[in-house]
Design goal:
With 315 residues, the chain is α/β, with parallel strands linked by helices. It has 9 helices and 13 strands. The protein binds acetyl coenzyme *A.
């Protein structure tokens, strides 16, 4: 019988712009305070791009991931960038990244936009395409410059987001369980951001509606993964949630009856970096040596669309 091929993350990297913007900095622009932002979101600071482009960050994170993976760039047979804030519409960030990294010329490179769920969509597309093509390695990146799409007079949104990139080199490999799920539920009102030159070029959001959606979909996604894999929450070492709001993650931990220390958080440092949020977490955890062989994580994201996605990964 043919053995099922799973997906293993073999190298990660992340990057963020140099400029750090604190809650106090924002309180000089809008009627808010460090105390309000920390209490309601857990965010303490974020990075805003000044000189850096989306591609600069995607490149830095990817170069780091390739180094950690210990493979040659010529081994990569697929490059996917998840973003809703590309430097330009065409060429895609993925093609620009292919060129800057010097990846092979004959491989598929494309962007996907599933907002904050983008990296998880990317992992599942990589698994499917590698399985179909017989390729072994893919580069999956989440990279965002959201600060340019924020209305710095809207205190309901400008305090939440930040810029950054995370990347993972993944390998199609036998013996590493991988299960992913993803979905979407068309919404054109609750969480939107128009084209840069349109009437509504900024992120606009009904925060409470997004909050309600998040606390219902995240446990649902985790339970779906557990049900399909026959695992229990106790079998899982880490739950890697999209970094939008500390209160959302605390609610999920309580609902899943799992200790909060299984839920790594870095939103205090980056804010919500959309598609970059989960790969930045994975890269930080990797740097801290948290992914020793056999560790299992369920990654789960939600975002504009609404979209959602989850994946079981094993190291
Ligand atoms: N500083 C001070 N006061 C504020 C601020 C602020 N930055 N923002 C809102 N307020 C005020 C409101 O005006 C309101 O005042 P009022 O009572 O006088 O009307 C009060 O604070 C409470 O507002 P709520 O919206 O009820 O505050 P809430 O506790 O819901 O927190 C928040 C708002 C942080 C936005 C929360 O709803 C949230 O995190 N939602 C989820 C957002 C999210 O995850 N977005 C990312 C989605 S992913 C993607 O794809 C982009």
């Amino acid at each position: 019988m043919e053995k099922e091929m799973g997906l293993r993350i073999i190298g990660t990297g992340h990057a963020a712009p140099k400029k750090v913007v604190t809650n106090d900095d924002l309180s000089k622009l809008v009627d808010t305070s460090d105390e309000w932002i920390r209490e309601r979101t857990g965010i303490e600071r974020r990075h805003f791009a000044e000189e850096e482009t989306n591609l600069d960050m995607a490149y830095a994170a990817s170069a780091d991931a390739l180094l950690h993976a210990g493979i040659q760039k010529e081994d990569i047979s697929l490059c996917i960038v998840a973003t809703f804030s590309p430097d330009m519409q065409v060429p895609s960030q993925a093609c620009l990244l292919q060129q800057r990294l010097g990846l092979n010329r004959d491989i598929p490179c494309f962007d996907i936009n599933a907002a904050c769920s983008g990296f998880l969509y990317g992992l599942q597309i990589a698994h499917a395409l590698l399985t179909q093509s017989g390729g072994q390695y893919a580069l999956v990146v989440g990279s965002e410059i959201i600060s340019h799409r924020l209305n710095m007079e809207d205190r309901g949104t400008c305090i939440l987001f930040g810029d950054g990139a995370g990347a993972a080199v993944v390998k199609l490999e036998e013996g590493y369980p991988f299960y992913g799920m993803m979905g979407a539920d068309g919404d054109d009102k609750i969480l939107i951001c128009g084209q840069e030159d349109s009437e509504n070029p900024y992120v606009q959001m009904d925060g409470q509606a997004v909050f309600k959606f998040a606390v219902s979909i995240i446990p649902k996604c985790i339970n779906d993964v557990l049900e399909h894999t026959g695992l229990t929450a106790e079998d899982i070492d880490y739950f890697v949630c999209h970094q939008a709001n500390r209160r959302i993650i605390e609610y999920v931990a309580k609902k899943m009856k799992q200790p909060l220390d299984k839920f790594y958080m870095n939103l205090q440092e980056y804010g919500n970096t959309s598609a970059a949020s989960i790969p930045i977490v994975l890269s930080e955890m990797d740097d801290k040596g948290m992914f020793t062989p056999g560790k299992k994580a369920i990654c789960v994201g939600f975002g504009a669309g609404f979209t959602w996605g989850a994946a079981l990964l094993q190291w």
